[in-house]
Amino acid sequence: MPIEARYIAGHTGLLGQALLRAWEGRPDLRLVTATRQELDLTDARAVERFLAAARPDTVILAAGRVGGIAANQAQPAQFIHDNLMIEANLIHGAWKAGVARLLNFGSGCMYPTACPQPMRPEQLMTGPVEPTSEPYAMAKLAGLSLCAAYNRQYGTRFISAIPCTLYGPGDHFEGPDAHVLSALIAKFHEAKAARRPSVTLWGSGNARREFLHVDDMASACETLLSRAEGAEPINVGSGTSQTIRELAELIRGVVGYEGGIGWDASRPDGAPDKRLDSSAIRALGWAPRTELREGIERTYAWFREHQARRSSEVACVSS
Ligand SMILES: NC(=O)c1ccc[n+]([C@@H]2O[C@H](COP(=O)([O-])OP(=O)(O)OC[C@H]3O[C@@H](n4cnc5c(N)ncnc54)[C@H](OP(=O)(O)O)[C@@H]3O)[C@@H](O)[C@H]2O)c1
């Protein structure tokens, strides 16, 4: 059986960890990884050297600077710089190393703010993107354009997927890089433990979002690698959406927090609606398996276990 060498750039991240879980132990794959300490992906020469030595058959571009509205607003320069550098280095480096296939990830925030819903790839670049995440969105659009240009000029098969908001084990729950769903889990958990009477959340709660469990995204990646041509970017969404208010109520129930929820409408909502038309990947035979409530329950269980392990490690170090 021929063995495919698959390099997962960003294997320590939310998506990268899910891909490792999905692919580890498969006899037809040799997984290649490198930590940030071993390989800084913003360093073009280091990336070229690494790819020339590792000679992967496939590159999975799951590395990048990712975060919520607060992080995007606090570090706009890092969001555009790091993502542009990582994409350019890996896409150019992959082509130079003769890599046949690459999987790149865009984001729903690349679509225009006023995009008709659900959003379709042909609507990309038909209007201005949401200002709160513009630098990140511009870098992600450049990644798509890079893949398309290399495919056109060099005949590569560099595929771009556009996932909706992902969540699951290994997500960022706290700090500036936290994503909304996981940040809500941590916030309600902390409020419950501290017996706070209420929590205040950013925005009006009316923004509508689509969430996909990261293990379902990992199975979508396999479908894309085996069946997508690479000519057009492909949306990957769960097909169901919630307002942030509905999501907060759902998470409050899963966590068992009995206090109130206040909304700070002076804070930005981000784009009012972001739902993806995922008919193209559905036509390739993929469908998500994890219902949102079940996914949140599993993610909350992981968060508690992880937190307990972290606390016991801190206790060991300080004792
Ligand atoms: N999460 C979502 O909701 C979502 C939605 C749509 C699209 N996407 C896209 O999916 C991809 C993966 O997202 P994610 O949520 O898994 O991100 P993540 O959890 O933040 O992980 C990012 C990964 O990139 C690595 N990385 C960042 N800068 C690096 C550098 N300079 N050198 C080496 N490694 C570096 C990180 O390494 P460290 O562990 O060392 O930091 C980590 O492994 C991104 O392209 C993102 O835009 C994500």
Description:
- With 319 residues, the protein is α/β, with parallel strands linked by helices.
- The chain has a single domain, classed as Rossmann fold, CATH 3.40.50.
- 44% of the residues lie in helices and 17% in strands.
- The chain has ten helices and twelve strands.
- The protein has a six-stranded parallel sheet with strand order 2-1-3-4-5-9, sandwiched between helices.
- β1, α1 and β2 form a beta-alpha-beta unit.
- α4 packs parallel to α5.
- The model has no long low-confidence stretch (mean pLDDT 94).
- NADP nicotinamide-adenine-dinucleotide phosphate binds next to α1 and β6.
What Rg is obtained from the alpha carbons, in whole angstroms? 20 Å
Give the oligomeric state of the chains in this entry, treating copies of one chain as homo and distinct chains as hetero.
single chain
The CATH superfamily is known as NAD(P)-binding Rossmann-like Domain
| Order of secondary-structure elements | EHEHEHHEHEEHEEHEEHEEHH
Q: Which percent band covers the strand fraction?
A: 15-25%
Helix content: 40-55%
Tell the overall outline: globular
SS-based class: alpha/beta
Unique bound compounds: NADP nicotinamide-adenine-dinucleotide phosphate
Our count of domains comes out at 1
Q: Report the major sheet.
A: 6 strands, parallel
Q: Name the poorly predicted regions.
A: none
The average pLDDT is 94
CATH structural architecture: 3-Layer(aba) Sandwich
CATH class type: Alpha Beta
How many DSSP-defined strands?
Answer: 12
**End-to-end distance:** 51 Å
Main-sheet strand order equals 2-1-3-4-5-9
Which fold name corresponds to the CATH topology? Rossmann fold
